[in-house]
Design a protein that fits this description.
There is one protein chain. The chain contains 18 helices and 16 strands. It is an alpha/beta fold and 480 residues long. The strands form five sheets. Strands 3-5-4-8-10-9-14 form a seven-stranded mixed sheet, sandwiched between helices. Strands 12-11-13 form a three-stranded parallel sheet, with helices on both faces. α13 packs across α15 and α13 crosses α16. The two termini are 21 Å apart. The model has no long low-confidence stretch (mean pLDDT 96).
Length: 480
Amino acid sequence: MVSVSCIVKGKPFPDLVDVTVEDLTTGLESGQFTSVDLVTAYLARISEINPILNAVTEVNPDALTLARQMDAMRANGTTRGPLHGIPIIIKNNIATLDRMNNTAGSYAHLGSTVPRDATVAAKLRAAGVIILGKSNLSQWANFRSDNTSNGWSAYGGQVFGAYYPNQDPSGSSSGSGVSSSIGLALGALGTETSGSILSPAEVNNLVGIKPTVGLTSRNLVIPISQRQDTVGPMTRTVKDAAYILSAIAGKDSNDNYTLANPNDLVPDYVAACDYSGLRGARIGIPRNVLGISADNTSAPILAAFEAAISTIRKAGATIVENANFTAYQQFVNDGNSTIVLEADFINNLAEYLAVLTSNPQNVHSLADVRGFTQNYSLEQYSTRDTKVWDDALALGYNNTDPRFWAAYQANLFYGGDGGVLGALDRQNLSAVILPTSFSPGVPALVGTPVVTVPLGFYQSNTTVAKNMYGNLVATGPNVP
């Protein structure tokens, strides 16, 4: 593997694996390198790494042209902000009005076009970001098959994590996680319905922010659920994630969930990156979640979590034990959350397909997409089934049916008074903390935010364990 740093204009070019927004901004402002230099270096990095890890499915053919434009603006004394001229990768379910495809990993979408950029992509461009390419993902954001592997898509193939041969990258923002972890761009955008930013961030040693539903627009992002979908950053540092979140957050008339945000101005997330920020905070631990969900593989994670609690306490926070999710056992035994996703998906997918400006496969509904998938050989049906869609169509109703309302109300209880909102309220907490692998499900029900940060690595003598599909290493030596 070639070095990711070199000498440019007599000074070391930044190591792409460890570089930050502020490092790149300093180099660009000082003239040490240009955005063209950066794009060229990242494209070389992708050419070197992608044949091994398969993280990127689309490279923007206009990336160098965009870099020249950003360099010309900078030379004229104009910049669009701290991300000006910096390359970022976005997940391949976020539409762009350019020469890149937006597929969600499916041939059903190949060649389809949209009337405009997804709002988050447009906001990145407005901030001066160069969209370098699109990342591979678990097909349909992990909402097609019961018998598949994280990071596999028909269009993009199998993503691998960088920390161990054939490592499970988790999903569904698999390629975004790997791209950011190994320096194929400064950072990446992922999407989440329940765990799809948090989980790949965890196993790729990243910071991942799953924003409050409605903080970032989902317009022209291939959907699962209007009630749970959100778009957020995946980076190597908290501050880099804050820079990207600041760029993509805000109201959008094309996404009514964003219009419910009481704040007209986007907060300064970067200024909130304060080393003393935990002083005086009340941090709750829902111990019952750990007691119910931990198993015989959880010991290394729980040990690292206890060490993290000690660090947080030393930083000045008050730790509140047993800030429990009181309905968690009921939630674990309940199927209403699946009903909500299935019923939303039927409508939300049809709404996305209806606005396409070209639709070469002529798919207009979930039934159409299922039919295409089951009859197009490259989709690998039934080696990888369509059971998620089968169940959704067998439900017999969508999110406009009165039967949907009862399931949604159950979600609001399990995530609300019986879940994270109840714990925050009863104990007057600033936040609750859990190991990332225990964290996504309950907040997803009510759209509350979650931030994940690295917790460490499995020990070097860890026994290799495969994923359920049998083709990837789920845990192993030195895996995050």
